[in-house]
């Protein structure tokens, strides 16, 4: 049994007999939209070009007739407005009959025809043939279909679209023993207390006013850390202000503003890998399954030598504390933490993985392969003294997020929540808001052809010598880049072999240069994009 986790998809219910020919089964998958009220078109014709992924599919050159369904299996019964959406369960009997669909780029992809016993009401079950595949390619015309509905004979309304489901039965890493459910858990690495660079002069900065919402959480965190030996009361000539940072889950991270201290701290050779290089390497694996491991409070797990602690002093509610463990906000903490975790994994002979400070990812072609790799790494980390929270272990899964990027079959994609956040942003009203918007979209520039040319009007209003003026040119650029983000293509995977060709496209315009790198395989007209630069 497969249960729908993200009910967004649609099938066309049919009342026909189960004994159908191949062509009759295929017809049940086609969407007939002759009636005007079945589809609502809200996009300009030229926006179809923005759905330009290399694996777009069509059947018999009728771009809006085929509905492909990701990972065998799901439905959304969208009832009347006053009724709640409910998850549906689908029982699949996978058959041997397959279907090859030619793509608009000249390539083809094989799909499997299966039959699903579908309950529309929770009581009555009926069988319907559907097409399934391991991934959800961008269907030419799907943008139209997502605005349309289908009513079955019972009057229930169904929406067209594509969404992922999770297959029950895959053993998850977060079920392993030794993982913690305590959100504040802190480990203690079994190493000697670390000798770290000491500031060349005393730095003393008073505590500034903190956000009211953070006061109670900070107080609780400091008390918890004191009970666990992470901080202790002290009297030191050094002092730096607390600088709380809100986490993505709404909680708070205890960081200290060590900017002044960092300026007088001797250098240390950086050992943290480049994030983009890690993405390139992971992309080259073209894996089918992934799992991620995030060590809980990794910095706070690393003990400091007593003579190094006074420089990290801070004051909270009139009491001065200092760190007995590696603090967050200090410039050498990431390098030291990354190196110690790397050493622990090497000592334990960890299987192949990628590591960025306290974030680790493993991959493989099967769920079991990934599970065994992840299990080994978790055992090594726990034995070394680190703590790991259950909630910070993800996978094995076909799709996962690592370093803020969504990964699927070796392809890099912009996460849906990022797209939603960016597209919901309102036009900036000053330079600071414009800079914040550019910062939010800049990380994804490799997904956007001619990015620099599109956003150049926005950069103009951020220059110091220019007054802020939001005109039609800025509004057009703002709307266009949000549209490009919403329809950004996936990048990769990187392929190798004598039949794979690398193709570099370049262009020059009034606003600068742009180029993009693609790979073409046998039978592909356009190929797969690897990245865009401008």
UniProtKB/TrEMBL annotation:
Among SUPFAM superfamilies, the record links this protein to:
DNA/RNA polymerases (SSF56672)
Q: Kindly provide the name given to this protein in its UniProt entry.
A: ribonuclease H
Where the record annotates domain Reverse transcriptase, the positions are 226-407
- EC number(s) given by UniProt: 3.1.26.4
Q: Which family does it belong to?
A: Belongs to the beta type-B retroviral polymerase family. HERV class-II K(HML-2) pol subfamily.
Which positions, given as ranges, span the membrane? none
PANTHER family associated with the record: PEPTIDASE A2 DOMAIN-CONTAINING PROTEIN-RELATED, POL PROTEIN
| The species this protein was found in | Hirundo rustica rustica
Tell me a Gene Ontology molecular-function term this record carries: RNA-DNA hybrid ribonuclease activity
> Matching InterPro entries, A to Z?
DNA/RNA_pol_sf, Rev_trsase/Diguanyl_cyclase, RT_dom, Viral_Replic_Matur_Polypro
**Top EC class per UniProt?**
hydrolase
Q: Which Gene3D superfamilies match?
A: 3.30.70.270, HIV Type 1 Reverse Transcriptase, subunit A, domain 1
